[in-house]
Amino acid sequence: MIGNLNHVAIVVPNLEKAKFKYEGILGATVSGIEHLEDHGVSIIFVKLGNTKIELMHPLGDKSPIKKFLEKNPNGAIHHVCYEVKNIKNSIKLLQKKGIEIIGDSSPSIGAHGKPVVFLKPKQFDGTLIELEEV
pLDDT tens digits for 49-71? Predict the structure, then answer.
């Protein structure tokens, strides 16, 4: 069902400083900052040859990652994102196997403008998994 690793998401305490570390120090190509109000996050993508790193920071007091950053003030890996060919079929298959989808099990539109869902970490050894349709 899952295909390529799309990205690894890291919550950071300061996007500008994180951008400088990847771009200015490591020499990576880094996108501009995007503010995704529907998701309560500000993000940038570090483009690598075979995948991406998503750097995230809470946007507003109701951000779903605000508490995560409070618990991890220096930043930490938040989730991994795998590609799937058909998100609706993937959801049906996962539900048949007893896997819980976060929210109402309906895909939302993610940072790349594509449908995404998140799987409950307790069922994947503590790892929050995002599935993105490609």
Answer: 999 999 999 999 999 999 999 99
Q: Which residue has the tokens 């990652």?
A: 65
pTM above 0.85, yes or no: yes
Residue-range domain boundaries for the chain = 5-133
Catalytic-labelled residue, pool 54, 130, 132, 133: 130
Q: Is 130 a catalytic residue?
A: yes
Q: Phi/psi at 62 (nearest 5 deg)?
A: -95, 15
Q: Which residue has the tokens 């349709």?
A: 133
CA–CA gap between residue 69 and residue 64 (Å, rounded) = 10
Domain 5-133's class? alpha beta
Neighbours of 55 (CB within 10 A): 26
Amino acid at 69: L
